[in-house]
Amino acid sequence: MANLKELTHREDRLAGGHRLCAGCGASIAVRQVLLGAGEDPVVVGCATGCLEVSTTIYPYSSWKTPFIHNAFENSAATISGVEAAFNGLKRAGKIDPDKKVRFVAFGGDGGTYDIGLQALSGAMERGHDMVYVCYDNGAYMNTGIQRSSATPKGAWATTAEVGVAQQGKRQVRKDLTAIIAAHGVPYAAQASVSHWKDLTTKAEKAFNTPGPAFINVFAPCPRGWRTPSSQTVEIAKLAVQTGFWPVYEVENGVWRQTVKVVNRKPLEEFLKPQGRFKHLFAPGNEALLAEMQADVDLAWDRLVARCATE
Hints:
- By secondary structure, the chain is an alpha/beta fold.
- It has one domain: Thiamin diphosphate (ThDP)-binding fold, Pyr/PP domains (Rossmann fold, 3-Layer(aba) Sandwich), CATH 3.40.50.
- The chain contains twelve helices and eight strands.
- The chain has helices at about 5-10, 25-35, 50-55, 75-90, 110-115, 115-125, 175-180, 195-210, 220-225, 230-240, 270, 285-310, and strands at about 40-45, 65-70, 100-110, 130-135, 185-190, 215-220, 250, 255.
- Helix 2 crosses helix 8.
- The longest helix has 24 residues, at about 285-310.
- The model has no long low-confidence stretch (mean pLDDT about 95).
């Protein structure tokens, strides 16, 4: 586990001056994850999305690593192919067999939960020595804040409007971390940009785990969530403290909470600062708020029970 002093001496592999929005959770997630890669060379693949379009505007790049831009749906497939080619060149004697290179793919929730799920599942099942990181900001932010399967129930999005027919998205968000854990991969984890030490430690574990590893990172989007840019980390912290975003890992099949919340705060404390949920606090939506709290409670109890029995 790297300490803060050691981390400050590691190279920041995502340069400043990119065009991501102020307070963007994705850039925080990337920096923390790549600190966990240590001193070894890193090859980055990145699905089309906010992170890619804002850091690689031709002819400039913010990446201090080899970087491969993939289509929306195939970041996992591309980086798994690069890993396979690297190992093939080792077997052919064209690369030093002791040479270490880290392979990591980044994708937002649209390119991971939804249209990239098939490629991700395939890469995990085939057992490539790679890390996949989802920066989860809860919608297709790059293309206009459309709902994804990571969008929370009750949230406003441009394709989950608020009106007479519905009050934001109707469905519960997909539990992608559990889905990837069900593939039997050596390491899967859920983390938040608000807990840097936990995230960086998990990134170190993921990079040092032989075979496929997955990290799902909670990464608020001020633009899409209608929040002040200065509140990104605080809102991410509230997601953890309310139990909306449990922080845990599944290592070789063993489930463990890495940040335990003894006295969870009410879900409303996470929802109130966000403009995408403001309609929930209008008269008549009390039942929906109670339903959302019940959903979080149920998911929390299931996770706690699973961590206690594994």
